[in-house]
UniProtKB/TrEMBL annotation:
E.C. designation(s): 2.4.2.17
Origin: domain of life: Bacteria
Protein role: Catalyzes the condensation of ATP and 5-phosphoribose 1-diphosphate to form N'-(5'-phosphoribosyl)-ATP (PR-ATP). Has a crucial role in the pathway because the rate of histidine biosynthesis seems to be controlled primarily by regulation of HisG enzymatic activity.
Claim: Metal-binding is one of the keywords in the record: yes
GO terms, biological process: L-histidine biosynthetic process
Main subcellular location of this protein, as a coarse class: cytoplasm
Protein name per UniProt: ATP phosphoribosyltransferase
Parent sequence residues shown: 1 to 212 of 285
Source taxonomy: Bacteria, Pseudomonadati, Bacteroidota, Flavobacteriia, Flavobacteriales
The organism of origin for this protein: Apibacter muscae
Sorted UniProt keywords: Amino-acid biosynthesis, ATP-binding, Cytoplasm, Glycosyltransferase, Histidine biosynthesis, Magnesium, Metal-binding, Nucleotide-binding, Transferase
């Protein structure tokens, strides 16, 4: 029988909650810290543990059939995948922040300024919509440090509590968009895999309702 291949984050903020969701669906999964893929013993599913950044590409290319990841990664990567539903965890916002002593005058503040981010595509779309000319510095991590080391005037990054910003002497000045974990699927699933997905979705629905 065919198995539905699901990609989830290997280790990070969404890992535990993604596994927990599958387990609450009654799907048995055993995972060691080095496991890269594993089969469930009681449901036709194979779990692939990947970096969240790679999930849109793998789902587009049918390496995985479905995946769990933050909406922000789907927007940024712009791959051909379908969003099935929101999952109610991993909530965060994508915001612009500047040094806390700066006088913020509204979004025109960012005109002709340098902004560091790991999400250049989402940021450039926001700038285009708002007729802002911003010099985007793409960096892959530790974005919050960019203003204090003179790399950029501000940052565009994921915020949940704001404590990381505070610790780095920054203040959030614009929320550009909000994001949460979602389930995505490949655009071409076989009939058999679609059937398994429907079973899984039925269970996910029940788990999410029971949490509310
Ligand atoms: P990977 O090694 O898989 O690339 P990562 O470092 O890119 O991991 P995490 O920091 O684990 O990613 O975040 C995964 C996702 O969790 C984010 O893309 C976002 O959707 C969500 N998230 C929720 N709250 C936060 C937060 N405070 N900081 C970062 N991400 C958050
Ligand atoms: Zn990542």
């Amino acid at each position: 029988m065919d198995k539905l291949k699901i990609a989830i984050q290997k280790s990070g903020r969404l890992s535990e909650k993604s596994l927990e969701l599958l387990r609450e669906c009654g799907i048995k999964i055993s995972k060691g810290s080095q496991t890269l893929k594993t089969n469930s013993s009681n449901f036709p599913i194979e779990v692939l543990f990947l970096r969240d950044d790679d999930i849109p590409q793998y789902v587009e290319q049918n390496v995985a059939d479905i995946g769990i990841l933050g909406e922000n990664e789907v927007w940024e990567k712009n791959r051909k995948v379908e969003t099935i539903r929101k999952l109610g965890f991993g909530n965060c916002r994508l915001s612009l922040a500047i040094p806390k002593d700066e006088n913020y005058t509204g979004i025109s503040y960012f005109n002709n300024k340098k902004v560091a981010t790991s999400y250049p595509k989402i940021l450039s779309e926001f700038c285009a919509e708002n007729n802002l000319y911003v010099e985007i510095e793409e960096i892959s991590g530790s974005v919050e440090i960019a203003p204090s080391i003179g790399l950029a005037h501000g940052i565009f990054d994921i915020v949940s509590t704001g404590s990381t910003l505070l610790m780095n002497g920054l203040k959030e000045v614009e929320t550009v968009t909000k994001s949460e974990a979602i389930l995505i699927k490949s655009e071409n699933l076989s009939h058999e895999k679609q059937k398994i997905l429907e079973k899984l979705l039925f269970r996910i629905q029940a788990v999410i309702y029971s949490r509310e």
